[in-house]
């Protein structure tokens, strides 16, 4: 291993790994990815892993998610089977009064090409008979699906390695300096130099920013998930709130708590989540729960990805976001364009770091 | 439900801790996920020596009864078939009986969840007839069932070899002991000698390629030194050792450390057996894989510390008592071939005291003293 690289990526979650893979495809750059743990020890190993599009608002954000979802089948052909399934997504509502909102959503998303149907109770139950008859209706879109995050991250890394990218695991970055246009990255295992630096530290990105002297406007939001025992196929779609994995387990939940980096699960939330699950799918009342886990989302203050150059520090870049599973193929592609050509095929203006400064003015 | 002390796990460590605590007048609740108390003692028909001094030499099954009977006149409540499944935000412990989840408010908690056997995965490992070596022991000693006729044992630690001996007595033919290393794991010369004398094939540098069969295991393909061999087998026992059961400690946010001699990942704890989670104590195999003597003594140690922290025992008495229990533990573990376990335990505790800025303990140089 030399210690001079063109690009050093800090963080080997789904975002850092995807960037490394896409960047490695051209084989133009010497790439090193550094991770303080193993690739799934962060948020990417504790996620629902929906590739979810249809009700992401405003519509430009839905559009971005759609482009990313569209990339999945091609990605799978390139890196191997990541168990991506375009199941279609159902977001139920329980109150007739929500239908109006659903119709407005469909109208808005149609403007950017996202196809949404607003279903009544019978239509929903026809698609997904296990859902509770107490629902009033749902929005539905073919574009949604889910993926196996473990295979996804592993295959990103394997493919990147095949293309010559290097990885250093169990190696925390403890200091970053910049002089003469080169970054000096001090890690537990030694010092590395990079012409370009990408921060993709997920929930730890704020800490990485501090090493560079910048304040990154993100917060940590815990989410707790229930996993059932493997069940016979019960639901076919990705449903706002749950999905069934290939091995039959159902993953349930989308709680949100700002408790810092605390990965405990608590019975308060787990019991609420279980109740929600049974309200949606009455059959789940008989299922055994084998495991609960929690993950820490990294949530930019306005909810949208922070992607692109870091202001005032030349050649420093950031990629931090919620919904990184959905967005990873697109983020990897766009960051590659940015690093190799200096411009992107999709305008990143809305995602740029400096939008936060602009708001303050 | 409210109690002074909640003990999670009704095995030997939990029962002995309950006895010590309740003797000081502490209101104690024991929850046990199984249908009866006693834990692993319930299938240990062998005679256990090297027990703490207040116990006579006795069979494991008898010891289970002894421990349970000792509680009968004390203020100890037991809930069988109850499992700890989580904690609430306010620190209450959620215990499920399969129908309802009961929140329990406890001033102190001792977790004595013991250890679980490690699995080994190969194609066909989920077929009926593939089980852990401990499961085979339960079938024989508790259920009086012969687990199979033609067996392969995967792993060569002392416990596996003891069961191999017992297989012979039970009329189970052991067709081989398979070890992936180039030597046996067990260093117990007497047992190794007798296994060799019995002519049981030892396959070193070997592993199971797969197990196949319709509805149950019928054939196993073995790979030794690169050569494969197919055998007619109806019982595969996996003896890969045991590791502490950690879920309750994870749920309570305890910090962990890795100590291979204690069974891998273990919660950190102090000389008082207190974990990094306030009011939560640890004992038994959960605190590091040891002998029955060590299991019972750590239970007692944790209970003494709980009694002190709740004001049922003054500091001076508690410190004296702890010192004498640690001395006894030192003697038992060092004479039972567990010197390394004892040293690992001391290293863990010392590290934790330093990290957590706890007072150093005069007990740290115990390992230098003779018994
Ligand atoms: C409960 C839950 C459900 C979710 N559901 C979905 C969903 O359905 N669909 C979806 O698209 N998204 C979902 N998300 C979000 C998604 O999982 C995340 O956006 C994504 O995993 C973030 O990936 P990442 O690579 O940015 O972060 P991470 O996976 O956390 O990776 C960051 C890496 O950086 C490393 N690192 C940090 N600091 C350092 C350092 N100093 N030195 C070296 N390495 C360092 C870490 O070890 C880590 O491996 C969910 C999240 C949660 C918590």
Could you walk me through the main structural features you see in this protein, from its secondary elements to its overall organization?
Among the domains of chain A are: 4-47 and 150-217 and 302-358, FAD/NAD(P)-binding domain; 219-300, D-Amino Acid Oxidase, Chain A, domain 2 (2-Layer Sandwich), CATH 3.30.9.10. The model of chain A has no long low-confidence stretch (mean pLDDT 95). Chain A has 361 residues and is of the alpha/beta class. Chain A is built from 9 helices and 18 strands. Chain A has helices at residues 14-24, 59-79, 99-110, 121-127, 149-162, 205-211, 267-280, 324-341, 355-360; strands at 4-10, 31-34, 50-51, 89-93, 117-120, 137-141, 145-146, 166-168, 173-179, 182-187, 190-199, 218-228, 238-239, 242-244, 250-252, 289-300, 306-309, 316-320. By secondary structure, chain B is an alpha/beta fold. Helix content of chain B is 31%, strand content 26%. Chain B has helices at 12-23, 60-70, 133-141, 158-169, 189-197, 247-251, 292-309, 315-335, 339-355; strands spanning 2-8, 28-32, 47-48, 58-59, 76-80, 83-87, 93-96, 101-111, 115-117, 130-132, 150-154, 173-178, 202-203, 206-212, 219-224, 227-232, 235-238, 242-244, 256-259, 264-267, 280-282. In chain B, helix 4 (158-169) packs parallel to helix 5. At the A-B interface, helix 7 of A face strand 6 of B. Bound molecules: flavin-adenine dinucleotide.
Structural class of chain B: alpha/beta
CATH architecture of one domain in chain A: 3-Layer(bba) Sandwich
| Cα Rg of chain A | 21 Å
Q: CATH homologous superfamily name of the largest domain in chain B? A: FAD/NAD(P)-binding domain
Helix content of chain B: 25-40%
Structural classification of chain A: alpha/beta
Cα separation of the termini of chain B: 44 Å
CATH topology description of one domain in chain A: FAD/NAD(P)-binding domain
Name of the level-1 CATH class of one domain in chain A: Alpha Beta
The residue ranges of chain A in which pLDDT falls below 50 over 5 or more consecutive positions are none
Global outline of chain B: globular
Q: What CATH architecture label of the largest domain in chain B applies?
A: 3-Layer(bba) Sandwich
Number of domains of chain B: 2
> What would you report as the Rg of chain B, rounded to the nearest angstrom?
22 Å
Q: What is the H/E order of chain B?
A: EHEEEHEEEEEEHEHEHEEEEEEHEEEHHH
Largest sheet properties of chain A? 8 strands, mixed
Order of helices and strands of chain A: EHEEHEHEHEEHEEEEHEEEEHEEEHH
Shape of chain A: globular
Summarize the amount of helix of chain A as a percent range: 25-40%
Mean pLDDT of chain A: 95
GO molecular function, one term (chain B): oxidoreductase activity
Organism (chain B): Virgibacillus phasianinus
Protein name (chain B): FAD/NAD(P)-binding domain-containing protein
Keywords (chain B): Oxidoreductase
């Amino acid at each position: 291993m030399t210690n001079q690289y063109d690009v050093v990526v800090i963080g080997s979650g789904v975002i850092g790994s995807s960037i490394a893979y896409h960047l490695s495809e051209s084989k133009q750059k010497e790439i090193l990815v550094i991770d303080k743990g193993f690739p799934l020890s962060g948020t990417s190993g504790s996620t629902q892993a929906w590739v979810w599009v249809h009700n992401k608002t405003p519509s430009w954000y839905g559009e971005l998610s759609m482009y990313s979802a569209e990339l999945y089948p091609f990605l799978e052909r390139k890196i191997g089977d990541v168990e991506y399934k375009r199941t279609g997504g159902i977001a139920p509502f329980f109150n007739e009064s929500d239908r109006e909102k659903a119709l407005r959503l469909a109208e808005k998303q149609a403007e950017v090409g996202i196809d949404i149907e607003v279903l009544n109770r019978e239509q929903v139950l026809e698609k997904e008979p296990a859902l509770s008859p107490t629902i009033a209706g749902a929005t539905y879109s073919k574009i949604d699906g889910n993926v196996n995050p473990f295979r996804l991250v592993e295959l990103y890394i394997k493919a990147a390695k095949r293309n010559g990218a290097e990885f250093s695991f169990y190696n925390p970055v403890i200091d970053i300096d910049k002089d003469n246009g080169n970054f000096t990255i001090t890690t537990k295992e030694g010092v590395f130099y990079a012409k370009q630096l990408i921060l993709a530290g997920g929930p730890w990105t704020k800490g990485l920013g501090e090493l560079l002297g910048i304040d990154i406007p993100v917060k940590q939001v815990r989410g707790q998930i229930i996993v059932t025992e493997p069940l016979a196929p019960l639901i076919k779609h990705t449903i706002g709130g749950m999905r069934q994995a290939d091995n039959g387990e159902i993953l349930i939940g989308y709680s949100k708590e700002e408790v810092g980096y605390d990965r405990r699960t608590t019975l308060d939330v787990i019991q609420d989540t279980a109740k929600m699950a049974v309200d949606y799918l009455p059959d789940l009342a008989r299922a055994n729960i084998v495991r609960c886990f929690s993950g820490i989302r990294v949530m930019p203050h306005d909810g949208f990805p922070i992607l692109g150059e870091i202001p005032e520090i030349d050649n420093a870049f950031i990629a931090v976001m919620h919904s990184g599973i959905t967005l990873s193929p697109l983020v990897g592609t766009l960051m590659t364009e940015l690093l190799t050509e200096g411009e992107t095929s999709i305008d990143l203006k809305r995602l740029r770091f400096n939008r936060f400064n602009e708001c303050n003015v | 439900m409210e109690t002074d002390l909640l003990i999670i796990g009704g095995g030997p460590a939990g029962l002995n801790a309950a006895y010590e605590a309740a003797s000081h007048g502490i209101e104690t609740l024991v929850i046990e996920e199984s249908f009866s108390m006693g834990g692993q003692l319930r299938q240990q028909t062998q005679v256990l020596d090297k027990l703490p001094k207040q116990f006579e030499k006795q069979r494991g099954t008898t010891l289970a009864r002894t421990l349970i009977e000792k509680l009968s006149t004390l203020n100890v409540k037991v809930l069988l078939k109850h499992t700890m499944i989580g904690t609430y935000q306010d620190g209450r412990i959620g215990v499920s009986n399969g129908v309802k989840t009961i929140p329990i408010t406890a001033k102190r908690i001792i977790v004595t969840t013991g250890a679980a056997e490690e699995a080994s995965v190969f194609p066909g490992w989920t077929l009926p007839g593939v089980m852990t070596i401990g499961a085979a022991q339960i079938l024989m000693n508790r259920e009086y069932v012969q687990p199979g006729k033609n067996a392969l044992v995967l792993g060569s630690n002392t416990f596996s070899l003891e069961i191999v001996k017992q297989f012979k007595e039970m009329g189970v033919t052991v067709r081989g002991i398979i070890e992936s290393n180039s030597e046996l794991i067990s260093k117990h010369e007497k047992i190794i000698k007798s296994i060799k004398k019995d002519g049981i094939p030892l396959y070193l540098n070997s592993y199971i390629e797969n197990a196949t069969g319709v509805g149950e295991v019928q054939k196993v393909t073995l790979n030794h030194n690169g050569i494969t061999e197919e055998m007619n087998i109806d019982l595969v026992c996996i003896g890969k050792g045991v590791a502490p059961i950690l879920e309750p400690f994870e749920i309570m946010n305890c910090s962990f450390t890795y100590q291979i001699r204690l069974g891998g990942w273990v919660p950190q704890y102090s000389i008082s057996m207190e974990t990094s989670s306030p009011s939560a104590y640890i004992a038994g195999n959960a605190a590091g894989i040891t002998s029955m003597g060590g299991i019972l003594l750590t239970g007692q140690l944790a209970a003494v510390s709980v009694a002190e922290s709740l004001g049922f025992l003054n500091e001076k008495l508690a410190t004296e008592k702890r010192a004498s229990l640690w001395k006894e533990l030192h003697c038992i573990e060092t004479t039972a071939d567990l010197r390394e376990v004892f040293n690992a335990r001391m290293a863990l505790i010392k590290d934790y005291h330093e990290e957590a800025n706890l007072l150093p303990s005069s007990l740290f140089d115990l390992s230098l003293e003779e018994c």
